[in-house]
Amino acid sequence: MLALKQLSANYDGAIVALDEVDVSCGAGQIVALLGANGAGKTTLLKAVAGMLPFDRGDIVAGDILFEDVSLLRRHPADISRRGIALVQDGRQCFRQLTVAENLQAASFAHSKGASERLELVQSYFPFLREMMDRKAGLLSGGQLQMLVIGMAIMCNPRLLMLDEPSLGLSPVMVQSVFDAIERMHRELKMTIVVAEQTVPRLLKIASDAYVLSRGRIVMHAPPSEMTEEELQKVYLN
């Protein structure tokens, strides 16, 4: 479904963020993208979503193919319409709008079937049903994370990318978020890429894993074949 081929990206025309990265993701997979802070995980996801120019970044070499169609130089709105959704770190939403208004706004580009998807979101995150009239800015960090994942579902994606969804959450909330991820994958047959520093639960549900370090892929293997010792060496180096 997704293929990054020898992808290289810079910031400000000088800072190398990705260096000849090759990543592939088959339809229906959960792929783990691992690495320490600054490894290039966020840059990779933003490159796929067409968001790099907003951060003064640019793809300087290689290609990104989604179902054999190049995404290079395409606007994020076009990429979204093709079926790709990115949940960025920072839990970005409209903090002054209510939960209901945020979910409605997320469905504008994919209005067909929005009512059914709203029911789906509420089934994954039942608390949202009780807080539809509450402003997003009043939600806790874990609740916000669930809201922005719900907003991504309202976009009707076939490929969902999550950038460190566990960041800053309590263990209970991390469990809830990954329960929802696993359920989406199982019930919706959704293809999912999750970028994290290290989350044992992710390695248990992922079918493939890549480890980034300083903008390069330094490990690629099924999670079951990655040892904690190998990961520690990558992170410490």
Provide a short characterization of the protein structure.
This protein is of the alpha/beta class and 237 residues long. Helix content is 36%, strand content 27%. The chain contains nine helices and ten strands.
3D architecture notes:
- By secondary structure, the protein is α/β, with parallel strands linked by helices.
- The chain has one domain: P-loop containing nucleotide triphosphate hydrolases (Rossmann fold, 3-Layer(aba) Sandwich).
- The protein contains nine helices and ten strands.
- The chain has helices at residues 41-49, 76-81, 99-106, 114-124, 126-130, 141-154, 171-188, 200-205, 228-236, and strands at residues 2-11, 15-25, 30-34, 57-66, 69-70, 84-87, 159-163, 191-196, 208-213, 216-221.
- It has a six-stranded mixed sheet, sandwiched between helices. The protein has a four-stranded antiparallel sheet with strand order 2-1-4-5, covered by helices on one side.
- Strand 9 (208-213) and strand 10 form a beta hairpin.
- Helix 3 packs parallel to helix 6 (141-154) and helix 4 (114-124) packs antiparallel against helix 6 (141-154).
- It is globular and about 45 Å long.
- The model has no long low-confidence stretch (mean pLDDT 90).
